[in-house]
Design goal:
The structure holds two protein chains of two kinds. Chain A is of the alpha+beta class. Chain A is built from five helices and five strands, in the order ββαβββαααα. In chain A, 30% of the residues lie in helices and 16% in strands. The longest helix of chain A is centred in the C-terminal third of the chain and has 14 residues, at 104-117. In chain B, helix 9 (243-257) runs antiparallel to helix 10 (268-292). Chain B has helices spanning 14-24, 37-42, 78-83, 85-90, 92-100, 112-118, 126-131, 230-236, 243-257, 268-292; strands spanning 7-9, 28-31, 50-53, 63-65, 69-73, 135-140, 143-148, 153-155, 158-159, 166-173, 179-186, 197-206, 211-220, 227-228. Chain B is α+β, with helices and mostly antiparallel strands. Classes of the chains: A alpha+beta, B alpha+beta. Chain A binds chain B through residues 1, 3, 19-23, 42-45, 47, 50, 56-59, 62-64, 66-67, 110, 128-133, and chain B through 1-8, 10, 31, 33-35, 38-39, 42-43, 51, 53, 55, 79, 102-106, 108-109, 190-192. Bound molecules: flavin-adenine dinucleotide and FE2/S2 (inorganic) cluster (2 copies). Flavin-adenine dinucleotide (FAD) binds next to strand 2, helix 2, helix 6 and strand 10 of chain B. One FE2/S2 (inorganic) cluster binds at residues 39-42, 44-49, 59, 61 of chain A.
Chain lengths: 152, 293
């Protein structure tokens, strides 16, 4: 049976009726057309579905939409403004940290959350901060450099 | 991957959860962080008509310090336990377990109760729960029981928890002065991997006689459940805390206590050898910490 949940996504409030067996990733993608959040594995292994939920990054494929009732969610769509991409997104483009781009929304959300909590992470903290996000293309070095360039 | 249909229940108190569990019994599964259960449901390894989510029950995610013990709620997450000052100060081996489970995303959801109830022989918090002599707190409708962690695990994926019961948390006695502990997990890569071998050790020595007066050693991924290394512990007890006795205990753990199998992550022989290495290393670090404590 569908239940109505209310939550804030990228500063906008939503009320939406969801089946209990729909994940947050599927709700974002299929109910709200926020397809920036990707699904690679759907089992918590790849991090493509990373979003920020109440200040912490989570695998949205392992959260039920109904569990996000009352939560504040940030997705990749919330990063850019009318002026264009956010500085972190620009850095990913500049440094060549994006190839096919499938991992990028997830990695950028992990990186954003890391920098929000710790504006000046060490090398190890950067690597740890994206350790749940797999990338098939870049070999990670350029991703590392893009995040590093955004340290304050 | 589609999740099967189920009814979703979100009790706000332990009492309400226990009532639901009583009513629904075998037909309901507890949902904590979901990092095991949602995967198992998607892969159709588990079936259920009802999910009872514990995440809105505040009492279950508390970490509180009592006079000579701490309580860790079953729904405390890895990230939350890692951040706790009392854990960082007095339960270093548990902190390492929590710091190393999965990856930064999983640790924001995965709970200690879920790790215990999932009862994987490789579970990252389980050796630490064993060496700190934790007590599992179980509740069913109108009834409570306490189970020493050494009796909690009954087989791979199996624990002594009954269908009408909920694990509410763990009580861990605060370690005494002159004691220390350490945990090491060995996997094929650092993040997001299931352990090949994981070992935790605890020791307490008498600064007067310079002898080991308490020790607990726990081995993961080398038997059907995480286990205590009873022979290794017996070999170390009463000995001087030094390299030779750590080595002798490690030899006992390697030869007598562990019963590993071959699988795609490693051979039984390799696991056995690593039990020796990690037992010795964790004991040496535990002693260094005991001296500093
Ligand atoms: C990508 C990935 C990497 C992982 N890496 C690791 C790792 O390195 N080390 C490791 O140990 N694990 C790892 N895991 C497994 C998992 O994250 C942990 O076992 C975690 O602690 C499970 O906790 P949970 O809260 O998510 O449990 P859930 O999935 O919610 O529950 C697990 C089981 O326990 C039961 N249960 C949960 N809480 C209770 C309770 N309070 N009372 C009664 N029953 C309960 C549930 O019904 C279910 O059967 C990984 C998982 C993923 C997806
Ligand atoms: S899609 Fe969620 S972790 Fe891969
Ligand atoms: S850019 Fe292709 S997966 Fe990372």
């Amino acid at each position: 049976m569908k239940k109505i949940i209310s939550l804030t996504i990228n500063d906008q409030s939503h009320e939406i009726a969801v089946e209990p067996n729909i994940t947050l990733a599927d709700m974002l993608r299929y109910e709200l057309a926020l397809t920036g959040t990707k699904k690679g594995c759907d089992t918590g292994d790849c991090g493509a579905c990373t979003v920020i939920m109440d200040g912490d990054v989570v695998n949205s494929c392992l959260v039920l939409a109904i569990q996000a009732n009352g939560s504040v969610i940030e997705t990749i769509e919330g990063l850019s403004t009318d002026e264009g991409l956010s500085p972190l997104q620009e850095a990913f483009v500049e440094k060549g940290a994006i190839q096919c781009g499938f991992c990028s929304p997830g990695i950028i959300m992990s990186a954003k959350n890391l920098l929000d909590k710790n504006p000046n992470p060490t090398e190890d903290q950067i690597r740890e901060g994206v350790s749940g996000n797999l990338c098939r293309c870049t070999g990670y070095q350029k991703i590392f450099e893009a995040i590093e360039s955004q340290r304050s | 991957m589609l999740l099967p249909m189920f009814e979703f229940h979100e009790p706000l108190s332990i009492e309400e959860a226990l009532e639901l569990k009583k009513k629904l019994g075998q037909n309901a599964r507890i949902l904590a962080g979901g990092t095991d259960l949602l995967v198992h449901l998607k892969k159709k390894l588990v079936k259920t008509d009802n999910l009872i989510s514990l995440s809105r029950i505040k009492a279950l995610s508390l970490i509180t310090e009592q006079k000579d013990s701490i309580f860790i709620g079953a729904c405390a997450t890895m990230a939350q336990i890692s951040r706790s000052p009392v854990i960082a100060k007095k339960f270093t081996a548990l902190k390492s377990g929590c710091d190393n489970l999965g990856n930064h995303l999983i640790r924001n959801r995965a709970t200690i109760g879920g790790n215990a109830c999932n009862a994987s022989p490789a579970g990252d918090t389980l050796p630490a729960l064993l060496i700190y002599d934790s007590v599992a707190l179980l509740e069913s409708y109108g009834k409570k029981r306490e189970i020493p962690i050494a009796d909690f695990f009954t087989g791979p994926g199996k624990s002594c928890i009954q269908p009408d019961e909920i694990l509410t948390g763990f009580r861990l006695p605060i370690p005494t002065d002159h004691s220390g502990a350490h945990y090491i997990q060995l996997g094929k890569r650092k993040s997001s991997e299931i352990n090949v071998v994981n070992v935790a050790s605890f020791l307490e020595y008498d600064p007067g006689t310079k002898k080991v007066i308490t020790t607990r050693i726990a081995l993961g991924s080398v038997a059907a459940t995480p286990i205590r290394a009873a022979r290794a512990e017996a070999a170390l007890l009463g000995q001087a805390p030094e390299e030779a006795s750590f080595f002798a205990a490690a030899e006992m753990a390697r030869r007598e206590d562990c019963r590993p199998i071959d699988d795609f992550r490693g051979t039984a022989g390799y696991r056995q050898a690593m039990v020796g290495v990690l037992t010795k290393r964790t004991l040496a670090t535990a002693y260094e910490r005991a001296k500093g404590a």
